[in-house]
Request: fold
Amino acid sequence: MNDPTTSTPRLALATCAELPDLDESDQRLRETLSGLGVASEVVVWDDPTVDWGTYPTVLIRSTWDYTSRVRHFTEWTRRVERTSTLLNPADVVAWNIDKIYLRDLEQHGLPIVPTIWLDPERQLSARGIHTRFPAFGDFVIKPTVSAGSRDTGRYDASQTPSRALAITHAKNLLGVGRHVMVQRYLKQVDTVGETSLVYVDGEFSHAVRKGPVLEGPYRAEDTEGVLYREEEMASREASPAERELADRVIATLPTVIPQLEGSLLYARVDLIPDNDGSPLILEVELIEPSLFFEHAPGAVERFAQALVARFSERPA
Reply:
């Protein structure tokens, strides 16, 4: 086997301080890269002692604490990109970091989960917030910048106490300057679940099922001190309708992100069914998504080979 310290460029796998050894899926990626002769180091993204210029390539992985420091994180991506190849690129991060990007996709004819957007600058009263909630059924409140279902709650429009909790949740988020999404909770999530479709170099790789995680109103203690809510995952074969929609999303990205050149190394499209079973876009994850290698035979090898190919394509 080639000596990985001399045969390939140095690669940084960016993580957060809470996961200094990466999560299990990305540990598997690192092992696979080593087998291909690619040396890598796990580096905490906000460590002030790191000289990012020593790494020709920086791969964003489990940087899951950035949502509380968005400006700091986006500045970091720009700084890294001045000296290294950042995957995915900083322009992609800037577009994808706020879920307002869903409006771009909707404007291009792609179906998203029906969403009402609340702007903190409007300084809505409790009544003003209340009138924007759905009149019936369950609904979800979450900030437009979040990850791992943090700061997210599920409410029942038919129950006055639940609506009151929803108003408080939304007011608290708006009060600290956060933009808010109000989305219908689509009941088939409880039975069918969510489908995450993973793409590598613009090509479909594999899909997984994510079980429901939202059971009630937001409570700070549910996610206090944790990076994300635990999810129930399993391998899944995407339906033709899910594949068609996710493929359309991937094909649309160069249009909504004009700076994007070529295919992204990785992308994940999260879909949920509407009441008729038709897929809708919940999220498009382009920054640091879990890629669920452990649920798809051959997936980690495909990803590693696509990454190595980018080393060979880099101009001398």
